[in-house]
Structures
1.
Amino acid sequence: MKGKRIGIFGGTFNPIHFGHLRAAEEVRYKCQLEKILFIPAYIPPHKNSSDIASSKARWDMICLALSNNDAFMPLDIEIKKEKISYSIDTLKELRNTYSDSIIFFIMGIDSFMEIKTWKNYIELIENYFLIVMSRPGFELENAKLAVPSKFSSKIFFIRKEEDFNRTLSAPPQIFLIPIKALNISSTEIRNMIKKGESIKYLLPENVEKYIFENRLYQK
Ligand code: ATP
Ligand code: MG
C-alpha cells in the first residue's frame, strides 16, 4: 500500500490526558503514521453539566495539549457541525479530503468492544483499516468477540513493528497493537477534581491550568 499514513483518533476527550497522548504516540511510531488527527465528538449544550465540558472547552484543551507536536493535529470537523456525528460519516468525509493517503481509524480496546453499537459498523470495518490499542483492564485477545465471526481472519495481533508493514494489505483489517498503555481515564480525572485531589502529571500542565482557570468538572 502506497501513500501517507494518517491516523484518525476520535473521542470525547473530556478532558484529554496522557493516556490518550502516550497511546497515540506509540501507535504513531509503531505504525509509521505521518499524522494523527484528534477529533473531539460534539456534545449538545443541553448535555453540558459539571461532568461534561462544552465542546469548546474540550477543543481548547486538545489544542493546548497538541500545541508542541507537529505530528498530532486537532480537527474540529465534528464539533463544527454542532450535531452528533457518526464515525462512519466522518471517515467518509476524511477519505475525500485525504484521497491520496491511507487512513487508519484508531481506538482503544474498550471502544472496540462496543463497535456493534455503532452506526453501519459492518461498513466501517469493511472499508477502513482499524488500529486497536490495548488499555488496562481490557484484553486485546477478546477483540474477536466484538465482531461477527466472518472477520476473525481479518484480525491481526501485531507483536513486532515489522509485522505491521508485512501484514498491511487492504481493508477489512483490524490490527491489535499492544502498547504500554497508561492507566489513566478522563472519568478518573473528573472524579479526582470533584474530590479536590491533585491531577498533576496525569495530563499536560497547560490543560491542568485551563481546567482550574475555567473551573471545569467541579461540583
Ligand atoms: P471516559 O472515562 O470519559 O470514557 P476516556 O479516558 O475513556 O474517558 P475517551 O475520550 O473516552 O477517554 O477515549 C477516546 C479514545 O481513547 C478511546 O478509543 C479510548 O479507548 C482511548 N483511550 C483513552 N484512554 C486511553 C488509555 N489510557 N490507553 C489507551 N487508550 C485510551
Ligand atoms: Mg472512554
2.
Amino acid sequence: MTAPLSAADRPVPPGSELDDQITEVHRRYAEVHPRSAAEHVRAKAVMPGGNTRSVLHFDPFPFRVIGGEGSDLHDLDGHRYVDFCGNYSAGLLGHSPDRVRDAVIEALADGWALGATHLRETELAEEISERFASIDQVRFTNSGTEANLMAIGTALHHSNKDKVGVFDHAYHGGVLSFGDPGSGSHHPLNVPYAFHVAVFDDIGGLDRLFAEPDLGCVVVEAVQGAGGCRPASPEFLSELRHRCDDRQVVLIFDEVMTSRLSFGGAQERYGVIPDMTTLGKYLGGGMTFGAFGGRRDIMAAFDPATGGSLTQAGTFNNNVVSMAAALATIRYELDSPTIDAINKRGDDLIRALDDVFTAADLPLWVTGAGSMLCIHAADTRLLELLFHAALSDGLYLARRGYMALSKSITDDHCERLVRCLEAWSKVIRR
Ligand code: PLP
C-alpha cells in the first residue's frame, strides 16, 4: 500500500494562487495514480468521459476502485480511502456487509431470472409499508429516477391534471433535475412534463405555485440531497401539506435519500405525511433499487381487480437479487437506534467542520441534516483543493463536497476528517 501523504505535510509552493495550487495538486494526484491514469485513457476510448455515471468524474481523472470493505475503498494504485461519500447515500451499510452478501447468495441458489411473482417481493412490501407512514401499498422499480417518474405519472393520473410542482435545485433523477426558478435552466435531458419550478423552502412562493389551475402533484425532498443538503423548515413542509389538501393536489415526498434520516424517514422526522413516497438508494442494500408507494386509493390504479387502468412494466422490478438485499437491509441492518446513531454522528460532524471553517475565516460552510451533509464554497476552486487535500489524506468525499455517512464510519473517522481539513485550512492560500 502507498501511504497517502498528508496535505499539511505538503504545503503548496509559496506565492502560488488558487489556480496554481490546483495545477499542483492535480500533478501530485496524477503522480501517485499512474495505473488509474492509464485505465482512464483506456476507458475514454469507449465511454465518453471514461465513465458511465457522470457524477463519478473528477479532475484530473478519477481513481479506479478495485474493492470496498466496511468503511474503506481500495484503488488500483494501492491507496485506501475512508469512504465519506457512501455511494451518494446508497451505501448506508458500509461496503460488503455480511448479511446482505449472505442474503443474495442464498437467493441465487434458487434461481434469479424467474419471471414470476415470488415471496420476497411481498415480504419486502410488507416491511416497507410498516415502516413508512404514507405507504399503504408499494411497487418496485430499478432506480430512484424510475420511482419518481412512476410516482409523478400515477399522481397526475389520480388528480387528472397535468402540471408538476417542483423546487429549485431539486434532483429527482437524471431526467428530473432542476436549476434556478425562472431561469429556464432545466436539464436538457429532462422529461417533457409541464413543470412549475418554485423556490425551495419559501412559503411565500407557494402562492404562485398553487395559483396554477392544472397543478396535479408536487414533488419535494424534505432535505434536498444533491441540491446541496438543504433542509426545508418544518413550517414549509406543513404549509405544503395544507395547501395540497386544500386543492387536492397529490403531495409526493422524494425520500430516495431522506428516508435515512429516521426509522420512518423524513416524514416521521418532520411529522408531515405525504400522499406518496419514493424510495431507492441504500434501501436496496447496494443493489439496483427503487420503490414508489402511497395511499391505497391512489395505488389502486394499478390493481386490475378493481378496474385500475395503469400498468407498470419493468422486467427487473421484482428481481430476486434486489429484493433479497433490500429485505436483509431493512430487517436486520437498520433498526431505530442504529439509524439515530448515524444521524447524530452526522449532526456532530456538520458542527465540527463548520467550526473549523469559521475559525480559519474561510468562505466555506456546511449544511445538512443527520447523515446527509455538504460543504459549500464561495469559490469552487477552494472546494477542488479541499477535495484533493482530503483525498491525499485517504479520505474520500464527493467532489462537490457532499457526504453521506454509513454505518461503518466511526467517530474516529470523523475526527480524522476534521483534523485533516483543519490542517489544510491553515496552509491554503487564497
Ligand atoms: N431522488 C433523489 C433525491 C436522489 O438523490 C436521486 C439520486 O441521486 C434520485 C432520486 C435518483 O435515483 P437513481 O440514481 O437511483 O436513479
3.
Amino acid sequence: MDDLRQKYLGAIAGAADEAALEELRVQAVGKKGEISLKMRELGKMSPEERQIMGPRLNALKDEINSALSAQKAALGDAALNERLRAEWLDVTLPGRPRPRGTIHPVSQVTEEVTAIFADMGFAVAEGPQIESDWFNFDALNIPPEHPARQEHDTFFMSRAEGDDRPPHVLRTHTSPVQIRAMQDQGAPIRVIAPGRVYRCDYDQTHTPMFHQVEGLAIDRDISMANLKWVLEEFCRAFFEVDNVELRFRASHFPFTEPSAEVDIRCSWDGGALKLGEGDDWMEILGSGMVHPKVLKAGGIDPDQWQGFAFGMGIDRLAMLKYGIPDLRAFFDSDLRWLRHYGFSALDMPTLHGGLSR
Ligand code: PHE
C-alpha cells in the first residue's frame, strides 16, 4: 500500500500536462486501475482483513483523486502565469501618433473650381475612367483613322483573345462626359465634370495620370462671347489676384468649331513659377463651340441648340496658383511635400468664406 501511494503521488506531482495526469488517473483509479483491482480483491479476504484493508484502500483512492485535481489546478495556474509573462504589455508607454496628412492641392483646387462654377449655375457631372472608344473618340468626332487619336497617347485596356471589338481605353480627357451628360439630361445643360484622365507622357509638366475639369453649356442662344466671359470670370475668381493675363489663341479640336486655346502669362524665373508676369505663357485650357456632330452623338438637335465646351488641367491650375514647380511631386505621396503644399481639412473653399485663405 505504501509503495502504491509513493508511486502515484510522486508521479502525479511530476506530471507535466493534463494528458499525463489523465494517464495516471486511468492507471491508478480507472476501472482497471491498480487501486480498483486491489479493491476487487477485498471480496476474497477474511472479514478481519477486509475491515482493515477496505478503509485504507478507500483513503488511498481519495488521496490520489485529490492529488490529481490539485496538480490539475497547479498546471492551469502555471499556464496562465506563463501567458501573463509572455503577453506582458506596458500600458503606461506613450502612444505612437499616426502620420497626419493634409488636403492635397488637387483636391483643394477641384473644390475651388467647383465652388466658382456652382456660383455660375453649373452642376457636377461624372463619367467612368475606363471608357469605351466610342465615348472617348467617335462621339467626339474623332473617327478611327483621325490623326488626333495618335496625339492622345492612349492607354488601351486588353480584350480577351479572339474578342475583336475595339478595346476600352483609359479616358484621355474628360470630354466623353459631355456626351454622357447630353444623353442623360438632354438640353439645356450647364455642367462641369472634374476627374482623372490618362495619357502616356512623363516630364516636369506631364504625368501619365492627371486631372481635368470639363465644362459644357448648351442652350438656344449660347455664343463664343458667353464662353469668353465665363472663362475670364472664372480666372479672376480662381487666381484671387488682379493681374491675371489671359491669351485666347485660335486652335483646333475635332469636337469644337470654332476652337480656342487659353494661355496664362507666367514666369519660371529661378525655377519658381509666378503668375501675371514674365514672358512665358502656360496653356491651361482648350475650348470652343460644341461641334454639331457632337450634339447629334449626344442626342441633341443641332438646329435647335448650341453651346460651348472647355477642358482645363486641374493640376496646372494648382501649380500656377500655389507656385508648385514640379508636377511629378503631386503623385509621390511624400508627406513632407504634402505638409508644405497641402491644406487644412477644416477650411472648405467657398466663395463667401474665401477660396484658399
Ligand atoms: N478635351 C480637350 C483636351 O483634353 C480639351 C477641350 C475640351 C477642348 C472641350 C475643347 C473643348 O485637350
4.
Amino acid sequence: MSSKSVFELILSGEIESEIIYEDDDIFAINDINPVAKVHILVIPKKKIETINDLKDADVNLAGKMIMVAKELAYETGIDLTGYRLLFNTNDDAMQTVFHIHLHLIGGEKLKNI
Ligand code: 5GP
C-alpha cells in the first residue's frame, strides 16, 4: 500500500479542509488553489491513483462522481451559466495528486482549452 494521498489525509482530518459534500463513496472540497470562482474537487473515498487504474467494477463510482459534480454545479448556481469537468491524468496533463479527482470549474467565463 502506497503512502496516503493528500485527499486521504483531508478525509481523515489529518489535513484541514472543509468537506462541502460527503456520502458513503465520495466527498468534495474546494480547491486550495482555485483557477476560477468555483473550483471544487469531487473525490472517491477509495484511492484510485489515475484514471488508468479504473476497473470495470468502478463504473458506478465513476458515474456517481459525475452525478455529484452535476449536483454541486446546481448548488453553487453555475449549472446554467456553464462549467467544466476535468480529470488530469499523469505527467503531460500535469496531474499532481495521484488519487483521482474530478475538477468542477466555473463561475466565470473560462478560457478555451
Ligand atoms: P491535479 O493537478 O492532480 O489534477 O489536481 C490536484 C488539485 O489538488 C490541485 O488543483 C491542487 O490545488 C489541489 N490540492 C492539492 N493539495 C490540496 C490541499 O491540501 N487542499 C485542497 N483543498 N486542495 C489541494
